Amino acid sequence: MIGYICKYTPVEIIEAFGEEPVRLDPGYKSHERAEALIHSNICSFAKGVLENIIENNIEEVILTACCDSIRRLYDVLIDKVKFIYLLDLPRKKDPLAINLFYNEIIEFIEAYQAFKNKNFAEENLLKIVESKFFNKEKYTESIAILGARLKDDVIEKIINSCTASVINFTCTGEERVFNIEARDNLLKSYAESLLNLTPCMRMAEDRSKLINKEFKGIIYNTIKFCDFYSYEYAELKSKTDLPLLKIETDYNDSNSGQILTRIDAFLESTGIKKMEKQKAKKGYFVGVDSGSTSTNVVIIDENKNIISYSIIPTGPKALESAYKAFEIALNSAGLQEKDITSVVATGYGRISIPFADRIVTELTCHGKGAFFIDNTVRTVIDIGGQDSKVIRLDDSGNVIDFVMNDKCSAGTGRFLEVMARTLGISIEEMAKVHKEVKENITITSMCTVFAESEVISLIAQNKDQRDIIHALNKAVASKAVSLVDRIGRKGKYMMTGGVAKNQGVVYAIESRLGEKLIIPFEPQIIGALGAALISLEGK
Amino acid sequence: MRKGSLWGSDKMDTVKIYTNIIKDNMDRLEKVNKLINLGLTTAYYYVSFFKDRRIPKSLHYLNKYSIKSIKDSLANPQNSAWVNLFAPSEFLIAVDIKPLFIEAYSSFMSGFFIEDYLIDTAESRGMSNTLCSYHKTFIGASELNILKKPKFMMTTSTICDANIPTFKYLSKKHGVPLYIIDIPYKYSKDAVVYVKKQLLEVAEKLGEVFNRKLDTDKLREAVKTENKTRALMREYLNYAGEKRFIPTMTFEMYMLFASHVFIGSKEVLHFYDMLVEDIKRAPERSGKSIFFIHLLPIFEKNFKDYFNFSDKFHIAGSDLNYDFLDEIDENDPFKGIAEKLILNSFNGEINRKVARIKELIEKIKPDGIIQFCHLGCKQSMGGTFIIKNLASELGIPFLYLDGDCVDKRNNQEGQNRTRLEAFLEML
What we know:
The structure holds two protein chains of two kinds.
Chain A: E1 2-4, H1 11-16, E2 21-23, H2 32-35, H3 44-55, E3 60-64, H4 68-77, E4 83-87, H5 95-116, H6 122-131, E5 142-147, H7 152-161, E6 165-168, H8 186-195, E7 217-223, H9 229-239, E8 244-249, H10 257-269, E9 284-290, E10 294-301, E11 306-313, H11 318-333, E12 340-346, E13 358-359, H12 362-373, E14 379-383, E15 388-393, E16 399-404, H13 413-423, H14 427-431, H15 448-460, H16 465-487, E17 493-496, H17 503-513, E18 517-518, H18 526-537
Parallel strand pairs in A: 1-2, 3-4, 5-6, 5-7, 7-8, 9-12, 12-13, 14-17, 17-18
Antiparallel strand pairs in A: 9-10, 10-11, 14-15, 15-16
Helix pairs in contact in A: 5-8, 12-18, 13-15, 13-16, 16-17
Chain B: H1 12-24, H2 29-49, H3 57-75, E1 80-83, H4 89-95, E2 98-101, H5 102-111, H6 115-124, H7 133-143, E3 152-156, H8 163-174, E4 178-181, H9 189-210, H10 216-240, H11 249-261, H12 266-281, E5 288-293, H13 301-307, E6 313-318, H14 333-342, H15 350-364, E7 368-374, H16 378-381, H17 384-394, E8 398-403, H18 413-426
Parallel strand pairs in B: 1-2, 1-3, 3-4, 5-6, 5-7, 7-8
Helix pairs in contact in B: 1-2, 2-3, 3-11, 3-12, 4-10, 5-7, 6-7, 9-14, 10-12
């Protein structure tokens, strides 16, 4: 077998040699071997490929000179595998560019012939290329996946959970179409067809023609340290009216719960998520929000009155906490499990709650709950223990856009907890507002770990504790408002989640937004309330 | 407190006040433009009137020339083109267009301490937070319309991924014509033909946009000047191993104006003329000398403390200033420039770059080599371990540190200090 990664690889030539081309699709949690050979800040896909090649002793590799990371990967691999070829890939496709690429392919064939001691036969290539004749299907309803390469298993999950057809425009999704007209120079026509594949962002060609107004939505994938795609996202974001979801992964973690939650919520909001419709019933309805920090349960009756609720820390076992929170809510409502008509679970732990009838993402639930409390709300800022999100609602309360923080704890409740500990005060003390500030300090690092050392040095400089707290609140507020800015400002704003109880942060956000925030009577139960409402309405 | 470096600590408070005024006015474009212009003008007059005796004449000239070139292109956008560091300047010289290269602009904005604001702006518009800060700063300024749009843009695909998408994005956003020069990774006759044809198109495009025909003789003139300049560059290198010369990191970076974007101009030739004279008169080498790979972190505090006007450690050079040292074919300047672009030591397999570094190290004989891995610069940091192997083959201590040459928030000063100090102690 010969490993490859780029869609512009002459896969059919390798097949014509009677060899097996295998597209490398790594998914490692650690890159121990790779990081001994290449700097750790290179893109994780390249590191994953390196790890894969070393771990599986892959002896033959063909790469294209497609991006900085892959070019350096080639340099690192050169004396570590038996056969490696770097195919230069022009960014244009005029006749001179085609000629250049054609020559590259010929040189590759010569190198591979010499290495394999096998001859290349053009007629084999012709057969293969003809067998790959491709009929373009007409899509009725489709969503597009654009941006950097998205892992095969994630694509598969999207296909399985959505009612529309999925068009994968990323590097993993190419349908290989060949239009070989000039048979007298098969290799040259083949080179030309390869250069005519859907252009990736590295190419000079304009890609805006890929966007079809008929798409039900666009999932835009970006990979950390992959420079190419954020530009197109930025452009799309300001121009397109289509529903747009951005996900950022480090490639290997694209299958994580957090990413799948976002995708599910997006499919829900665009109305193409596969789900069974339920009819509304009578009785009592429960929403369980199994968050990373707290587990919250709300019970409502058929008239949408909140009968009871509970909030308990999640602790190490999400399931136990869910049972416990459910029990507390039942007790305080004076109800028994048999009185409950249906249960909807949400939050990170939602998939592991056996007594739930349905699961819905926390984004949809927060939107639902917030709009129910106050139907003037158009933007929900939810800052929980481990993550923060901003949700945009339309005039009917439907989720039309959202953003979530990256996977680190910057700007979340955990950030404040760590800082409270560093300052040696309780989280309640930290939440008090100190309007008078002696010195306007700014914490520059948003990373919890680095900010902690910054706080330690502020303590060492004998700075007033209140000023440090003020600086921390500003830091959280700035992170939250930058999330708001990513989907655009629109009032009124509601703030939910545990951090909404921190008045210092609330003031800091209000002063940045220049607008008052609506704080519900119990900001921690909004997700569970939304889940209970969905449980009642069945949608 | 040290004097002389424009951004030295004694000017810090003044710069900070200035920075705050700019940041407070970000929503008032005209005012910000004026303020930035004022900053550049002040910098220009500052270096003109307060000559620091420690700075050789040639570098003083370069300092003024660099500031002036930025000022000129900003003041006259209609006669200016945005380019990347590797764009073939000869064409712009031949038609008298003032280039603004994005790396330089971003460095100046970092010098004015407003890079954070510009970077945050670019990120809030959707740019990746792992993208190179030279590009993000420039994009941020362009998003805020602080930068007035030029009449033309030109970029090569070398040496990093960010060039093409940054320019494509900016060109689309402002509706300004862009020419992308695709530089093949490998050298071949066909590759030269491919680039030459693109360069012919560049000439045509320039003629169209600026309504002036490119005169091949003028282009040839620029190439001739460039060849003379490179001869001086090679001569300078003959002394670089014996003398201590570069007083601060900023000058080694300013040299990029001369070795890249403005090479081919009479002023740059004049600069190298003076440079060779100056280095001949410079004191013999003493203390320890450090050769830098790729970039120098001119705003990183530890590096400033250790290298700027230091008696103990001095800057022996950097490979980016010597990425091409050959003669260009004067008979066919289009072909000659095409060859120059493809054969750049930062283009192609890393062996080409390694060979150039080896050649430079053998000439300059530094005591240590440092690679400052600029965050997001994968083309450079991807080769770190290979350069490290070269250094150990040559028996020269090597250090790599992570940080950011523009966005100061990405520099972990404490961590880097320990490593840098330990390395310098080791020498």
